[in-house]
Amino acid sequence: MPVFDLSVTSLREFNSMLHSLAVGANDTAFEVVNPRGHHAVAVGIDTPVTVDIRGSVGYYCAGMNDGGTVIVHGSAGPGVAENMMSGTVVIEGDASQYAGATGQGGLLVIKGNAASRCGISMKGIDIVVHGNIGHMSAFMGQSGHMVVLGDAGDALGDSLYEAKLFVRGSVKSLGSDCIEKEMRPEHIEKLAELLEKAGVRGVRPDEFKRYGSARKLYNFNIDNADAY
């Protein structure tokens, strides 16, 4: 496995190498040591490679990931996995604010806590947080799933569209137009799938509550969409 030491190799050189990889390249797994809180580590991956980062990173790690697997063996600064398209990003520690923002696909797993605005404007990404999340998380979430094993802060799901939120712990307050909803069999099935993919063991899907949009802020009533 090629090893890149960011105390020796420049971050630009490392990211450029990842961007130049062709599908079917021999090297598909890379290790990064001494990340030293660098910003924008492993951004823009568009091939199915695996990057293990041995330490904590700064802003926007693994942003725009499309098919890669990025594992941060430490904590991540603001904007980790922002605008992710597909693939998997795993943070072994904590994540700062707006983790997974605008993500359109893929899976983001945060094994510690996530700060405020986790998953804002999510557009299809799945986010699983083993710990707690901060205030205004899933703000304007459009689609995808957010799973929180711990507690959620103020204004969860404010101005939510069709993203589905599952919280095992307490919710300090719900945002505008976000309400608790029934956990139907299809939600239990999907939640069980997400917990398994995120490596969560010993937790049952029926321990969670589901939250979603009351659909009162829409410009039209979605139930009557065929009539427009």
Helix and strand topology:
Blueprint lengths: L2 E3 L5 H10 L8 E5 L16 E5 L11 E7 L13 E6 L15 E4 L12 E7 L13 E6 L15 E4 L10 E4 L3 H13 L11 E5 L15
Parallel strand pairs: 1-2, 2-3, 3-4, 4-5, 5-6, 6-7, 7-8, 8-9
Antiparallel strand pairs: 9-11, 10-11
SS element count, helices: 2
Q: Topology as H/E string? A: EHEEEEEEEEEHE
Secondary structure class reads alpha/beta
Low-confidence stretches: none
- Quick one: how many beta strands? 11
Binned, the helix content reads 10-25%
Distance between the termini: 57 Å
Largest sheet: 11 strands, mixed
- Determine the strand fraction and express it as a percent band: 15-25%
The general outline is: elongated
Mean pLDDT: 94
Q: For the CA atoms, what is the radius of gyration?
A: 18 Å
Strands in their spatial order, largest beta sheet: 1-2-3-4-5-6-7-8-9-11-10
Verbal overview:
With 228 residues, the protein is α/β, with parallel strands linked by helices. 10% of the residues lie in helices and 25% in strands. The protein contains two helices and eleven strands. The chain has helices at residues 11-20, 185-197; strands at 3-5, 29-33, 50-54, 66-72, 86-91, 107-110, 123-129, 143-148, 164-167, 178-181, 209-213. An eleven-stranded mixed β-sheet has the order 1-2-3-4-5-6-7-8-9-11-10, covered by helices on one side. Helix 1 links the parallel strand 1 (3-5) and strand 2 (29-33). The longest helix is centred in the last third of the chain and has 13 residues, at 185-197. It is elongated.
